[in-house]
Design a protein that fits this description.
The relative contact order is 0.14. By secondary structure, the protein is α/β, with parallel strands linked by helices. The N and C termini lie far apart (47 Å). It folds into two domains: 192 residues, 3-Layer(aba) Sandwich (Rossmann fold), CATH 3.40.50.720; 86 residues. Helix 2 packs parallel to helix 4, helix 4 runs parallel beside helix 5 and helix 6 runs parallel beside helix 8. The longest helix is centred in the C-terminal third of the chain and has 22 residues. It is 44% helix and 16% strand. The chain has eleven helices and twelve strands. The radius of gyration is 19 Å and the shape is globular. Strands 3-2-1-4-5-6-10 form a seven-stranded parallel beta sheet, sandwiched between helices. It has a three-stranded mixed beta sheet with strand order 7-9-11. The protein binds nicotinamide-adenine-dinucleotide and 2-amino-3-ketobutyric acid. The site of nicotinamide-adenine-dinucleotide (NAD) has 29 residues, from helix 1, helix 4, strand 5 and strand 7. Nicotinamide-adenine-dinucleotide binds next to helix 1, helix 4, strand 5 and strand 7.
Length: 319
């Protein structure tokens, strides 16, 4: 059997930092190559790579010969609204580069990270189903719809085994989030520990689908290990876990930090959040590859606060 060798683009980001660690645990350091625009001290096997520099990208893939590429490089919703042309280049041209290079180098499988941002007006926002009209209001969402369709196109036309997930807001402790609309649900934990208070950029009652990083990484690996024949979705799978509002998250945090205070100062991200699903129907993922989340809201809060406290203790011991 062919040895698994994995290349990750955008590895220094919020999902990449956690996914690389899980891949190293599974396949060994030498078989996992982390790449990103930004150098990272987190990885010992790392190469700088701009996915828009196709010559360098080609050379790297030709040399390392990955069997799987996880394509995480991208620009998120809130940052993207400030510079749509750059977002389009990175999220769409960068993805086409990955697909072409994967095909030319006979890479066996490629992963695409889509988002709940593909939905918008015209998609029912409660328990949003897999196959609904996709009319996103952000350039980020539009780029993800294009990316999903390109994934399916390369699968149907060239037989490239591309698999994708529509991630909800991901909550993680390994690294800060990269400029999205769901970032409040990570920032809040840092502020809860630092100052005991948080000013949220969404209103208290804005409900969004969220997922803990441990579930997200495990689910991603499970999708990539699933039998190709069992996969009925080649755009990207709806991928659900929990769903809560900022007020509900603050209530859960107060179970551990009773004096925690939250206030609300909604900005432009509120308008984006209001076009996204409140919760997700992920029946196809649960049916096709047996997806099941494990972390409920109180589990996420407990684990986040514990992990961030551990990081703070380690940092102060170093200094
Ligand atoms: P992030 O912003 O934390 O990380 C993205 C990484 O891509 C960064 O490290 C950045 O340096 C890198 N990058 C940007 N432009 C690049 C380029 N030209 N070449 C190479 N690298 C480049 O994002 P993330 O949260 O880790 O998300 C990873 C992927 O998952 C993205 O495509 C994102 O849209 C998607 N996603 C994330 C979430 C979430 O909540 N984190 C939810 C839905 C989808
Ligand atoms: C964002 O808010 O942009 C991301 C996402 C849900 O795609 N976290």
């Amino acid at each position: 059997m062919e040895k698994t060798r994995v290349l990750i683009t955008g590895a220094s980001g919020q999902i990449g930092q956690a996914l690389v660690q899980a891949l190293v645990d599974e396949f060994g350091e030498r078989n996992v190559l982390a790449t990103d625009l930004k150098p990272s001290e987190a990885f010992s096997h790392f190469e700088e790579l701009d996915i828009l520099e196709t010559n360098h990208y080609q050379k790297l893939v030709g040399g390392f010969k990955p069997t799987i590429i996880y394509h995480l490089a991208g620009i998120l919703s809130a940052v993207g609204e400030k510079n749509p042309s750059v977002l389009w280049k990175v999220n769409v041209q960068g993805w086409i580069n990955t697909l072409n290079i994967a095909l030319e180098n006979k890479v066996s499988k490629v992963f695409f990270p889509s988002s709940i941002a593909v939905f918008g007006p015209g998609s029912s926002l409660d328990y949003t189903r897999q196959n609904v009209a996709l009319h996103p209001t952000t350039v980020y969402g539009i780029s993800k719809v294009a990316g999903e369709n390109l994934a399916q196109y390369f699968f149907r036309k060239f037989g490239l085994d591309v698999r994708g997930i529509r991630y909800p807001g991901i909550i993680s402790y390994q690294s800060p989030p990269g400029g999205g609309t769901t970032d409040y649900a990570v920032d809040i934990f840092y502020q809860a520990l630092d100052s005991g208070r948080y000013e949220c950029f969404l209103s208290g009652d804005v409900r969004l689908p969220m997922m803990y990083i441990d579930d997200a990484v495990r689910g991603t690996l499970e999708l990539m290990q699933a039998n190709a024949e069992s996969l009925s979705v080649r755009t990207s799978y709806n991928f659900g876990a929990v769903s809560f509002t900022p007020t509900e998250l603050a209530t859960s945090i107060r179970k551990i930090i009773p004096d925690f205070e939250i206030s609300y100062a909604p900005d432009f991200r509120e308008e984006i959040a209001n076009t996204w699903p409140r919760n997700i129907d992920d029946t196809p993922a649960r049916r096709d590859w047996n997806w099941q989340h494990q972390f409920e809201i109180d589990d996420i809060v407990r684990d986040m606060l514990m992990k961030l406290k551990e990081k703070n203790t380690l940092r102060s011991k170093k200094n």
